[in-house]
Amino acid sequence: MTASVSAPALPARMLRSAWRFAAAPGWTRRIGLIGLAVIVLAAVCAPFLTPYDPTALSTGTGLRGPSAAHLFGTDQLGRDVFARVLYGARIDLQIGFIGVAIPLVAGVVIGLIAGYYGGVLDAVIGRVIDVVVAFPFLVLVIAIVAMLGPGLVNFYIAVSIVSWVAYARIVRGETLLAKNREYVLSARALGYRDARIMFRHILPNVVAPAFVFGMSDFILDILAGASLGFFGLGVPQPTPEWGVMIAEGRNFILTAPWVVVFPGFAIIVVGFFASLLGDALADQVRHIDAR
Amino acid sequence: MIRYLTGRFLQIVPVLFGVSVIVFALVHLIPGDPAVSMLGSRATPELVARIHRQFSLDLPIWAQYGNWVANALQGNFGISFFYQADVWSITLPRVPLTLLLIAFSTVLALAIAIPFATIAAFRRGGLVDQGVRLLFTATLGMPSFWLAIIFSLVLGVRLKLFPIAGAGSGGLDTIGHLTLPALTIALSIAPILVRALRSSLIEVMQSDFVTTGRAAGLRSRTVIVSYVLRNSMLPLVTVLSVNVGWLIGGTVIVEQIFGLPGVGSLLIGSISSRDYAIIQLVTLVLALIVIVVNLLTDLAYVALDPRVSLTGR
Amino acid sequence: MRASEPLLVEHLDVAFAHGTRRVVRDVTFEVPPGEAFGLVGESGSGKSLTLRAILGLLPQGARASGSIRYGDRSLLDLSGAEFQRLRGSTIAMVFQDPMTALNPVLRVRDSIAQVIQAHDRVDRGSARTRAVELMERVGISDAARRSLAYPHQFSGGMRQRVVIAMALAAHPSLLLADEPTTALDVVVQGEILRVLHRLRREDGMSLLLVSHDFGVVAGLCRRAGVMYAGELVELGPTSEVLFRPRHPYTVGLIDSLPETGQRRRLRPIPGSQPEAGQPIVGCSFAPRCPLATGACRVGPIPLETAGAGHLSRCIHVDRIPELRGRGSPPTGEHEGAGVVHA
Lengths: 291, 313, 342
Known about the structure:
The complex is a heterotrimer of chains A (about 290), B (about 325) and C (about 350). Chain A is mainly alpha-helical and about 290 residues long. Chain A is built from 12 helices and no strands. Chain A has a single domain (about 25-45, about 80-290), classed as Orthogonal Bundle (MetI-like fold), CATH 1.10.3720. The longest helix of chain A has about 35 residues, at about 80-115. Chain C has 2 domains: about 5-220, Rossmann fold (3-Layer(aba) Sandwich), CATH 3.40.50.300; about 245-325, no CATH class. Chain C contains 11 helices and 12 strands. Chain C starts with 6 loop residues before the first strand and ends in an 18-residue tail after the last helix. Chains in contact: A-B, B-C.
């Protein structure tokens, strides 16, 4: 066997692309990146940022407004809202990341294979995609979670079953286009194995739009997770999660709005930074395509 | 036209088959014995056996599916223990309200999105454009349930601007009751619509034929209406149909929070009562709505774009 | 149609980025009423932008300065509303790519009729009738039936005829044509050029034609200008510029044309055009010019007379015959254009 072609391994290339993307100029991407980084950092360092235990009940200090002692006030059970928002970020951010990661990997691989091999395999996968896409995302996730039972793991299972199709569709389309490009044709003429062509040659060139979609999927997953939490289908008590917090504080909106407002803002803010980042990524991908 | 429609219906058949398989399979996701889960604390060996018979749970899976489809085609989707009535007759009367809410929300969403997108596109790069983009990027992540409870308690209870519970008594009263819910749903998808519409407007405005029109001395109004807007209709229809799934998701949430007797609140309510048959039927109905919307979109394409003919695709 | 007036372009500059990137530099030429004038140059020479500046259709970020006068009207000072009245009715333009030039959702008859109604108070029925007549004028057979078609049902050549019909709909006295035949195949090219020639003669309309193809310009225009790197480097009667060029770039351009009936190596001009907008000291062609001397790179080179009605931006005009020694003078034939001298 001849020596392998000097194409650097995919993970290294992805890291380099990510670095180039992050370091490039542009306020949109910087604000989005820094904003998200700050939130992730805050979630990770939660114990250092607040002295309170998010699950500690404290009678007598319920429904206090924001103050120096309690930045975001307290909820009806006396728990510090700021602490709950911070610890809740751990859950909700996790929902976003894992909710994207699994479907992305699965969908990209399936889409790649379907687009590359074509034929019956592609027809079948295409049909499956058509069927799953016919269901409203949230409805199918709710239905699956209703069957499996509440909880974070079941939520991930449900999301994975439903979400991979979008990624598969995107990558399949791109792969179909890429299949006829010269670099693929020459790779095949050189006798490379299919798997190598797919994962070493085609994949790096088709995966960018999947990541762009991943950014908006990140927001959608957090919204879905929070919605399920709101309806009691999410994490069990007393773990803080933004949707659950909003549900619990629902009756106190008029008397103690901070209980509901701050978790809601948290979701909006995460969505905002993720959107900025997604826009910057989309612009970048568009310019690469135009070259 | 008839030939086209029959052709399209034939295309849908495999999708319908797949959808029915998934809906059927939902119940089999339940860990353990579905009959035991359904009955919960009421489970006794006789009731469990009865459920097994009713749902043919002892047969091999494909036979179960066959039975299920055969029953479904006759309108028999099972019995609800909670309501003590058959699932079909519980679900069906609630569908019109959900459809009305979906339609109302779409209209409101367009009423919000089109003006903002148009102003932003025509003043591209300016302060107004930046402001619109900022506003609708920030609200992309706004949860509809959060907005719903704020609206219902602040605008409904405190300010008593709109009724917040139930669907009213038909006609104008129902519209009044549906206003806040529809507004909530509309606001949650407006950001997506505004961004996509603005984008496609800008793209159309930069196309060659618009330059031709301007060079020929057409009045601005003619260019905007006949050239820019008419060519942006198609992308708008596309964006709407792509996001109908999310619109329906929002409808489910909002129905529950505002206490509207549609299929969405039925779905959520059936989760705690473990009425799996209802969950199945509602999921099926909502998927059918998506499929019908996609079909209507295709027809809209034919009507809007002379390049798309009924025969070719 | 009002009688055509002289178009006078003087010291026209078009610049991007607040004037730091000049892509059209100090261009001066004239199109007398009823005459045809051609601008030749490669892509990036600034010829298209010159045309767009006349009708105020420059892309975002571009600013024009200098003077453009049509008759006694100064075109650089017009407001948006004034431009709208001027376009189509006085000065009209035909663009390069017919495939994307027409509104896809309108029937061709309505595209043309809208232009008529924009400048004239007629009802839709009369406008549509006139549209059909215009389609016949530009050579579309079976016009009445075809007018109901949508652009995607027409070939490129037919679409270009519709574009020309739209341009003529309001009886302009000056027609600007930006590479009107470049996107068409050779046979159709000839047909479109014949249409333009015939219409011009019938209406006494002035024509300003821009092309990278010398043959196209030679077929239609009495006078021509050669543009390079945003500047006019040569200007004169077409036959003179073509057969007795007075600028090394023009010589190179003509020499590089493949000739029919002659077996000869292709002779491209070595090097490439400077990037648009870069500031240039001295002659812009000097880096590629076989006659260049130190004097060529110092200070701006003015346009000087080099013959009757013939101007050149070269200080070594007298040495041009040295270049012409290589290879025989072109035969004046160019495939497809059909020599149709004005």
